[in-house]
Structure formats: structure tokens, C-alpha cells
Amino acid sequence: MSSVIASADRSTGMVATVKMGSQSMKIDESGVATGEDTGPGPMDYIMSALGSCTVITLQMYAQRKNWPLERAQVTLQQRTLSGLEADLTPGNKRTVISKTLQLTGDLTPDQIERLKDISSRCPVQRTLEAGVLIETTLV
């Protein structure tokens, strides 16, 4: 079970401190109210998790197959749909994340196609696509 503690108070405005085990970081909603651009925003961390999980998954798979994948890079862009465009998506999803892969190495076309397929199987992408049940308790 993974545990994360996030906190913010009146003095920090739109800046939160997040602790994960012995690590901590700042998350700053700099585009609103009193954000101070002291750290990435919440969606940046979701995108970072997806991107890092994708390239790590690709490297693990290529190593296991002994394929010559030298470098995997993914560029992510997020946009929000509205109106009819959103209504026409499966499940009426409103957020779209576009992934662009760049694979470097002496790979065959079949290996490249397989790595593209594997890139969508990282645990973070599977979690995002499946959706998450969030239970809230007040203490």
C-alpha cells in the first residue's frame, strides 16, 4: 500500500507540500490565485508519472527481450475537451493525454511496433484508463 501526505495552509497559498516516505516535494498551482511558481502543478506530476512509467516499462521490456533499445523518450500533452467533442468520446471523457514516442536504437520495424504496444501497458497508464475509486474519510 502506498501512502502520501499532502498539506497546505493559509500562509502557503496555493503551494502544497507532499511527503512520500523520506522524500518531499512542492506542488504549486501557479496559474491561480497566489501560486508562486515554486514547483510543478498537480497535473504535471500526473503527466510525469505517466511519462516515467512509460519509458521505464519500455526499457525493462527491451532488456528482457535483449533488444537494442538505446533510449526511449515520450512527450506528453494534455488537453481538456468540452461540448460535443467530449460527448462523443468513449465514456464522455473530458481529458486527453497525447503520447509521442521516440525510440532510439537499431530496432526492427516489428520491434518498434511491439514497443509502441507495450508503452500503453505501463501500470500508471492502466490505472488512469481504468479510473480510480477515491474514498474520503474525515477525521
Automatic annotation (TrEMBL):
Pfam families: OsmC (PF02566). SUPFAM superfamilies: OsmC-like (SSF82784). Signal peptide: none annotated. InterPro entries: KH_dom-like_a/b (IPR015946), OsmC/Ohr_fam (IPR003718), OsmC/Ohrsf (IPR036102). PANTHER family: OSMC-LIKE PROTEIN, PROTEIN INVOLVED IN RIMO-MEDIATED BETA-METHYLTHIOLATION OF RIBOSOMAL PROTEIN S12 YCAO. This is Osmotically inducible protein C.
